[in-house]
């Protein structure tokens, strides 16, 4: 853990550059296909939990699960479970927005408990109130002010809505998402690189010292070719 954190700190560059034209983040308040970043974060978690534990995209070490469950105008990229440094490769169709977590939490009610939405949202927020570092590079260029890209669901949701392996998904409602997310304009065709280094600093909660350390080599391709 300590060595990864040192690597993350060394990853900071002296420049205050903006993201390149080929990989450009939308503003935090931007809407894509009628949805806000917080709404997309709920959809992202439903996508992630559509597969059973062990097969989820954030548990994929190589990018082999990159196309898993993708649909619509936005292509989801996964973070990690916070335990491994991961490098993935992913082919993405031309014209897709990219949406991914920098670091984030989901919190949902224990089976059958149906906790109040406000309580679930507070649990999702706890570690995100203690963000220590968040460093993102798009094609080698640092994205400034990543801490401004926090998105938290205002309404609770059913995190297992797409999970056919769960007999009664409503038993785990409500769920809430909170974290730091980037929505990227559809990148130009060709090769792109994404790097994320982030961590919390909250020793008093579960996952309170979680680290996100992952890279993507992204090939944007024209499916018509």
Report on this model:
The chain is globular. The protein is an alpha+beta fold and 225 residues long. It has one domain. The longest helix is centred in the N-terminal third of the chain and has 12 residues, at 37-48. The strands form two sheets. A five-stranded mixed sheet has the order 2-9-8-4-5, covered by helices on one side. Strands 1-3-7-6 form a four-stranded mixed sheet. Residues 1-20 have low confidence and may be disordered. Strand 4 (131-138) and strand 5 (141-142) form a beta hairpin. 13% of the residues lie in helices and 30% in strands. The chain is built from three helices and nine strands. The protein has helices at 2-10, 37-48, 117-125, and strands at residues 74-76, 86-93, 97-108, 131-138, 141-142, 150-152, 175-184, 190-200, 211-221.
Write the layout of secondary structure elements.
Blueprint: H1 2-10, H2 37-48, E1 74-76, E2 86-93, E3 97-108, H3 117-125, E4 131-138, E5 141-142, E6 150-152, E7 175-184, E8 190-200, E9 211-221
Parallel strand pairs: 1-3, 2-9
Antiparallel strand pairs: 3-7, 4-5, 4-8, 6-7, 8-9
């Amino acid at each position: 853990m300590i060595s990864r954190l040192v690597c993350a700190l060394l990853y900071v560059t002296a420049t205050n550059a903006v993201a390149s034209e080929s990989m450009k983040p939308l503003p935090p308040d931007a809407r894509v296909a009628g949805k806000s970043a917080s709404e997309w974060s709920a959809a992202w978690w439903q996508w992630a939990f559509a597969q059973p534990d062990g097969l989820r995209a954030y548990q994929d070490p190589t990018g082999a699960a990159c196309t898993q469950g993708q649909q619509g105008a936005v292509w989801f990229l996964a973070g990690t479970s916070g335990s491994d440094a991961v490098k993935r490769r992913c082919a993405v169709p031309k014209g897709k927005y990219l949406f991914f977590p920098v670091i984030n939490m989901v919190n949902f009610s224990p089976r059958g408990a149906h906790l109040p939405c406000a309580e679930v949202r507070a649990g999702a927020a706890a570690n995100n109130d203690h963000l220590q570092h968040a460093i993102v590079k798009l094609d080698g260029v640092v994205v400034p002010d990543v801490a401004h890209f926090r998105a938290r669901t205002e309404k609770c949701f059913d995190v297992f809505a797409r999970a056919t392996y769960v007999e009664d998904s409503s038993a785990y409602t409500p769920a809430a998402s909170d974290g730091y997310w980037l929505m990227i304009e559809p990148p130009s065709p060709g090769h792109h690189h994404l790097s994320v280094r982030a961590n919390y600093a909250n020793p008093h909660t579960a996952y309170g010292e979680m680290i996100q350390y992952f890279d993507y080599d992204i090939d944007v391709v024209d499916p018509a070719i």
